[in-house]
Description:
The complex is a heterodimer of chains A (about 425) and B (about 400).
Chain A: E1 6-9, H1 16-24, E2 28-33, H2 57-62, E3 66-70, H3 76-87, E4 91-94, H4 108-114, E5 119-124, H5 139-146, H6 148-151, H7 167-189, E6 194-198, H8 199-203, H9 213-216, E7 227-230, E8 233-236, E9 238-241, E10 244-248, H10 257-269, H11 275-278, H12 285-291, H13 296-310, H14 315-325, E11 329-331, H15 335-339, H16 342-346, E12 351-355, E13 360-364, E14 370-371, H17 389-396, H18 401-409
Parallel strand pairs in A: 1-2, 1-4, 2-3, 4-5, 5-6
Antiparallel strand pairs in A: 7-8, 9-10, 10-11, 12-13
Chain B: E1 11-15, H1 22-30, E2 34-39, H2 64-70, E3 74-77, H3 83-95, E4 98-101, H4 106-110, H5 115-121, E5 126-131, H6 146-152, H7 178-196, E6 200-205, H8 206-210, H9 215-224, E7 241-245, E8 252-256, H10 260-269, H11 273-276, H12 284-289, H13 291-302, H14 307-316, E9 321-323, H15 327-332, H16 334-338, E10 342-347, E11 351-356, E12 360-362, H17 380-387, H18 392-400
Parallel strand pairs in B: 1-2, 1-4, 2-3, 4-5, 5-6
Antiparallel strand pairs in B: 7-8, 8-9, 10-11
Helix pairs in contact in B: 1-7
Amino acid sequence: MLSPYRVLDLTTERGLLCGQILADLGADVVKVEPPGGSPARCLGPFLGDEPHPDRSLVWWAYNRNKRGITLDLERAEGQAILRRLAERADFLIESDAPGALAGRGLGPADLAAVNPRLIYVSISPFGQTGPKAGYAASDLTVMAASGPLFMAGDADRPPLRLSVPQAFLHASAEAAAAALIALHERHRSGLGQHVDVSAQQAATLATQSGSLAGAVGWIETGRVAGGASVGPITLRFVFPARDGHVSITLIFGASAGRFTRRLMEWVHEEGCCDTATRDKDWDHYFELLFSGQEPFAELDRVKQAVANFTSAKTKAELLAAALARGLLIAPVATVAEVVESEQLAARGYWQAVEHPELGRTFRYPGPFARPSAMRLVYRRRPPLVGEHNREIYAAELGIAESVLARLRTKGVI
Amino acid sequence: MADERPLADVKVVDLMWVVAGPAATRVLADYGATIVRVESARRPDACRTLAPFLTLPPDPEDSVLFHNMNAGKLMLALDLATPEGRAVALDLVRWADVVAESFSPKAMHAWGLDYESLRAVKPDLIMLSTCLMGQSGPLASLAGFGNLAAAITGFTHLCGWPDRPPAGPFGAYTDYIVPRYNAAVVLAALDHRRRTGEGQFIDLAQAEAALHFLAPAALDYTVNGRVQAACGNRDPEAAPHGVYPAAGDDRWIAIAVHDDAQFAALCDVIERPDLATDPRFATRAARLAHQDALDAHVTAWARQRDAHDAERALQARGVPASAVQNSRDLLADPQLAERGHFVRLTHPTRGTTTVEGSRFRLSRTPARMESAAPTLGRDTQYVLRTLLGYSEERIAQLSAAGVLA
């Protein structure tokens, strides 16, 4: 869908996903790396646990459908080549420290002078301006600064992050949508602009608006492992199963109450709660709790009855019942269970991606969406270091072989 | 004056609810799109029962989550499950560029509002269907919220302490990932239509999109056969790396030390220069092997300090660190203030409310948050009369038939 557009992707591991979303949507994305390869190639895990720049699984995860070139942007000759590339690009995405590229004459204003249509996307921990713009950052510290960390984990332990880094993925995905808004605008004005994405702001979305509690005088969102708090009410979502855990949306109200009613009917059928417990007013149960008509201890008793019930069943039994009875239950799946899931297999989700350099084919997570007008296809495996140097420098920019050889010797490419 | 925002020409019928859908159309609204949300009092948005609230006990119009997800949108009260309601929906589709819905797959068919029916009245329509597991497959009909998608895609299992059951990330985690994919694919489809005249149907399974946030772990399994497990706050590439108690009740500081220079700076700040020369901590590999000892030293220092003071002291020396901020801290955060993150809006019945601003800036055509989220049915008259050109009689008939509720 985006095949007419060319993207220069200068990002480190903090922005790789943005270019990949555009590449999956069909854009021609050129990954620009320093000579020797991007530092993101040093991130594990690796194929066979052997550190190697072409075997980083973080690299593989976020660079398919891109071509790759190497270019030293610290040197004037490299900067000049980047300006030439920018002349014919629609987007440039970068995730350097704010101001770093401008310091090399490659900032938004510099490149707008070369190509006023260029959409220049900057992804950074805190945004390009402000008192924390220069902060050193890491996934953990950005999640701390933006709110989700405070709300996750066990009440008796420190706040907890996901064991797979997330903060810059939120920012990068946000950046892809932002870049396409700027593209839509360009059709009217003919002009590009600077898109400035803050990972801190992007990650506040993961607080489910708990970020606004202070602003409106609401109670802080406390940590409830496997659950959540709604003001004074503690909800539980993770329940034991015979072979692991399941997640149940055990909530109430005009829309969700019917699901809880059906669950309690099943719990009652199997003798795990009495009729009065089954027949509570689940549509108005929040109101009953908030008004004090229903003591919180009763909710605790309900949660315990559900836990006793689920702990005797397998995850598969509970999932089958969710489908048959219309319940809000799903297994807490391990990565292995996710990859082997029947649902994803039936949808043909996993994509076989051939790595000819290794003589092997690997299964990658599949397309993020299925648009009918153009399937999102995996056209290319992630590029090797400098794989498309010749194709782009010689064939597209028309740089003579002799000049290329000199640039290579000097370490510019 | 004409709206100069980027998406001022884009018209969306929003049949979505809760977060994964409405958060996407909220972004489009910030940048000028006209979004008509359709909601029926018979099936109100579950958001309305979710915190934070303006008051306690909460009224359905008091959910600040609902306010935040729906600022800048119009609201039509309409019962889609009636023939008259369907007729109004089809007129809306004729008006729209995009229809986005997040029901489970059978619902739109049951109402005669599936893509084929809608395309019959609007051939170049872009329709986004975004449900938990996608439009096909054995689990297609699995209803649910993002906490279920987070569980079934592996996020819940990958957030926890090694000695405890999975804690899971906060809330309905996939709902916080998917909006960006929803927005991006709709914008790409609009671009495609502009060039080709062609509309399309988009099936976006929330589980499938969200899985990209776990792609390295998924590949570790498909490539290496390894099943990654939750490891608390530890990191395979950095040590010390954790969340340490600070002075005060439930106050914490997050610190992540990635290299030798950051470690040397940390040792200075915590007034333990001896640790910098201790062979147990001389290299990153050594520090990773002796994390418990390191954590004890950092904890001893952090406990005595205000979390924000500790953050500033470490940042002054280039060590990644942040106080673990709660919502009061966010409100007082000078960085978020500089970015205009908190926006106060006049609420139709509640005085004022606060929403979050755009999470990014466009230098020439910035976002504008102008109106608070609509109350149920607030814009029914405007949508029917002004956008669809209905007569007073037609509106009165619909109202009498109970369709506009």
